[in-house]
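Regression test attached.
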Amino acid sequence: MDCSTCREMMLEFVEGTLPAKVAAGVAEHVKSCPSCMKELEKQSSRTRVLQSLGRVQAPDQWEEISRSIRRTGPWYFVTKYGIVAVIAGIVAAVAIVAAIAFLPALRHASPSGSSSNPSPAPAESAGR
Amino acid sequence: MSDSTDEALVREFVRTGSRAAFSQLYYRYKDKVFNTAYRIVGEYEGARDVAHDVFLKVYVEAPGFMFKASFSSWLYRIAVNRSLDEARRAKRRRTSSVDALPGELASGRDSDLPESSVIGKEAGAEFAEALSALSPKLRTVITLRYFEGLTYEQIAEVLGRPIGTVKSRLRRAHHKLGDKLNAMGFTPPEGDYGLFNLSGNDA
């Protein structure tokens, strides 16, 4: 294993998520490469510190959230982001739905000579 | 109902509008949502806003939740998206402010910071400062992996990205964090930080 591959796998090696065979390869390389060993020590130390940083005590916002639900419910976002943004969103959604709904009708309305028109015209004319 | 699964609680809430079921989901996840927001946004008040909006969004959108992903992944996804949005706003606020206050994670002025728990206050503050220098995207993967303890697969589901992308983002985040810590002259606190066993292959 070369240094570049070893560095690529170092994070997973430290976190213990590499398959055993690959991890053995990394360990083997690190033992004989002082530079990668140094990097591994740094990586290991960083990871351990990150894992040791605790959580923040979250505030209890239940009452606040309940109030918002009671007062505004779905309209909360209207009051927060503004009526214009919400209306623009609704208009865009309606336009998309309308486009999808009317697309087949528009296709039928296209000229009969159009090559995209799959009408049974040739059969009818043959019958007459 | 306290032992009910997330799915059972969501279904109960959607079917009957049960405030009790929703409340239970809130208390089950409030710490996770708030901490995710706090680490990404870097401000206590900003994180409060995010947590508030996230649960309100869940309340409004739960009837459309199809259970294709787990409830927690869905919740984390909402929290991450809202936090990234708030982080952008916070950055705009800071850059437009004359004082250009750094985030609370960097200044360490927030008394609720738990960084002193294991590694010592000074080292914790230095680490927090280095973390706050990362982009919100990189802080997100660090947060989900180390503070929330999610697996690579779970992070991929939350972010809607392939596992390879998650791993490369984590590597990039570590790299940048290392550079920042080096620039700050950070030395790891003393103690047994060896995570690996070079003599074995159980890493």
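Expected vs. actual: identical. Residues 173 and 180 of chain B are 10 Å apart (CA to CA).
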